[in-house]
Design brief:
The protein has one domain: Rossmann fold (3-Layer(aba) Sandwich), CATH 3.40.50. 45% of the residues lie in helices and 16% in strands. Strand 4, helix 4 and strand 5 form a beta-alpha-beta unit. The protein is globular and about 50 Å long. The structure holds nicotinamide-adenine-dinucleotide. Nicotinamide-adenine-dinucleotide (NAD) binds next to helix 1 and helix 4. The site of nicotinamide-adenine-dinucleotide (NAD) has 30 residues, from helix 1 and helix 4.
Length: 249
């Protein structure tokens, strides 16, 4: 198994790509903490993993709150003595109609950017203590290119996650901590997305994707699985783009 006994936190794991990763990582032997603010859905994901014979527990964690991170890490380390893998996946969408809304810019920063920073902060402290680990941060193609229908705050937050990941890789490499980013393209719409859930917008975007279709949640999950696993032992400060060739065109 590719993640045998790895103690893992996946944020935003009650739905979407986070849920796909929780199920995949558990099948690969990880002990998965399904972290989210959606308690009922998150508990259900953890229960489904256990019913399939995997190891999973639900953890309430609002990634934008430092006190939530402190208690979540305390629970994980208290139960297992260590944290091997953190996937900073939780996020809210920038695909909203009012692309100049200032409050939305602040929300993008609070959840997507600050949430990722806080995760890195609390994970590196534990990983330094135990000799290393792997952190996988979910950015987006929105962190690499400009887009017509996305709030600039989302682009700014996702670009921030991209370079934050490289900086963390540089600063904590000597501690055996690897930090990489995943950049999905057009995937099933996020719960919080409005404009990218519009069939007309999706059709227009798909027309520009070399593979000619949207991606599936498990296709991003497999990229994260590689980065989380020891197969990627010499990979840090890198990015994997999972976009069907959109940004290559
Ligand atoms: N869907 C896409 O097209 C797409 C494309 C590129 C990147 N991404 C990124 O991939 C990641 C996963 O996206 P998804 O499509 O699975 O989204 P999703 O909306 O399906 O799932 C996101 C999860 O994050 C949780 N979440 C939101 N705010 C939170 C908070 N403050 N604390 C903890 N959990 C919180 C939600 O409850 C939800 O379960 C996000 O970071 C997103 O920005 C998505």
């Amino acid at each position: 198994m590719r993640l045998a006994d790895k103690v893992t936190i996946i944020t935003g794991a009650a739905h979407g790509m986070g849920e796909a990763m929780a199920r995949l990582f558990a099948r690969e032997g990880a002990h998965v903490f399904v972290a989210d603010v959606l308690d009922e859905e998150g508990e259900a994901v953890a229960a489904a993993i256990r019913a399939d014979g995997g190891h999973a527990e639900y953890l309430h964690l609002d990634v934008s709150r430092e006190d939530d991170w402190a208690s979540a890490i305390g629970i994980v380390v208290g139960r297992h003595g260590r944290l091997d893998v953190l996937v900073n996946n939780a996020g809210i969408s920038g695909a909203v109609p009012d692309r100049l809304d200032v409050a939305h810019f602040d929300r993008m920063m609070a959840v997507n950017a600050r949430g990722t920073f806080l995760g890195v902060k609390y994970a590196v402290t534990e990983m330094q203590r135990t000799g290393g680990g792997s952190i996988v941060n979910f950015s987006s193609i929105s962190g690499l290119i400009g887009q017509p229908f996305v709030h600039m705050g989302y682009n700014a937050a996702k670009a921030g996650i991209h370079i934050l990941s490289k900086s963390a890789a540089v600063q904590y490499g000597r501690d055996g901590i690897r930090v990489n980013s995943v950049h999905p393209g057009l995937m099933p719409p996020m719960r919080s997305s409005v404009t990218s859930a519009d069939p007309a917008v999706r059709e227009q975007t798909i027309a520009a994707i070399p593979l000619g279709r949207a991606g599936r949640a498990d296709e991003a999950a497999y990229a994260a699985l590689f980065l989380a696993s020891d197969e990627a032992s010499y990979v840090t400060g890198a990015e994997i783009v999972v976009d069907g060739g959109f940004t290559a065109a």
